Amino acid sequence: MEWQQLEYFHTLAQVQHYTLAAGKLSLSQPALSRSIAKLEQELGIPLFDKQGRGVVLNAYGRMFQARISRILHEMTEAKREIFELENPEYGQISLAFLKSLGIRYVPYFVRSFLDRYPQVDFQLFQNSTQSMLEQLEYGSLDFCLSSMTETSSRIEWKQLWTEEMFIFVPNRHPLAHKQSITLRELSAEKFVVLKKGYSSRTVFDRLFSQLELSPIIAFEGEEASSIIGFVEAHLGITLLPQIAGMNMTNIARLSITDIPCERVIGLAWKKDKHLAPAACRFRDFLIDTCSTLDPADLQF
User: I want to staple 219 with a disulfide (CB 3.0 to 4.6 A). Which of 20, 119, 170, 192 is the partner?
Assistant: First the structure.
């Protein structure tokens, strides 16, 4: 059974006349008749009954037509989706990103890109750096916006920007009046931090390891907003980047002076994964945009 036979059958079922169907298919009537006869022979049953000068589907034909219509529709949709995927003006882009980037950065990037290419469709996900990279390596994502971390040789990572990280304390904390501090001065403080696998936690562990300090961890969480809530409740202090929309009413921010303290954000993708033209265009757009990025520009 050949694909062309199914298309011929579908057309004849709609037109119900060999001559008209042959003309619509741009082939001779005998050629159409032979194709339908061969199809019926392969199936072992007749599909049409004669009716005057035309033909009509019999019970077998109606059942077969119902199935074939769905198959042809799916093939048409598959061709359309492939066209859109390979057309840079269309296509779908799957992007995962750190939760803290979902307030300003990612909405700004997506909105700016869609202003230029409105037919592109985005699938967006939020997760920890570790989880995102696992999904990326599995092949279920095009890109992830994550902090710099150790990755497999199959992952490409391009630095986009850096964010300074600060110590946040409650307003009534003895250190709240200070503008800056060293991490060594905080060795006796209790910290509330994100769980392992999150980018800010990775930076936190690395900094204290470099200084050969063992921080006291009171609580671990999965949301920066929850961590700030714990700080406001005087349950500890924390190390985080300045996150857009962070309520600073009840907390104070201190710079760190004894060691460079920043989070590096970049774009990661799988080296051997085929990226649609729209995805490649988005990658180039991000790299170009971030080369001159000023956080003050992140307005809609």
Answer: 192
Containing structural domain, residue 220: 163-263
Q: Are residues 168 and 232 in the same domain?
A: yes
Taking the C-alpha atoms of residue 165 and residue 240, their distance in angstroms, rounded to an integer, is 5
Whole-model pTM over 0.85: no
Q: For the chain, what is the domain count? A: 3
CA-to-CA separations, 182 to 117, 176, 191, 254, in angstroms, rounded: 47, 14, 15, 9
pLDDT band at residue 298 using 50, 70 and 90 as cut-offs: low
Virtual torsion, Cα 287, 292, 294, 300, nearest 10 deg: -60
72 or 95, higher pLDDT: 95
pLDDT of residue 182: 95
In the chain, the DSSP E strands lie at 48-51, 54-57, 92-97, 121-126, 143-147, 155-170, 180-181, 190-194, 216-221, 238-241, 251-256, 262-270
DSSP helix/strand/coil, 235: coil
219 and 143 housed in the same domain: no
Q: Are residues 153 and 271 in the same domain?
A: yes
**For residue 300, is pLDDT > 90?**
no
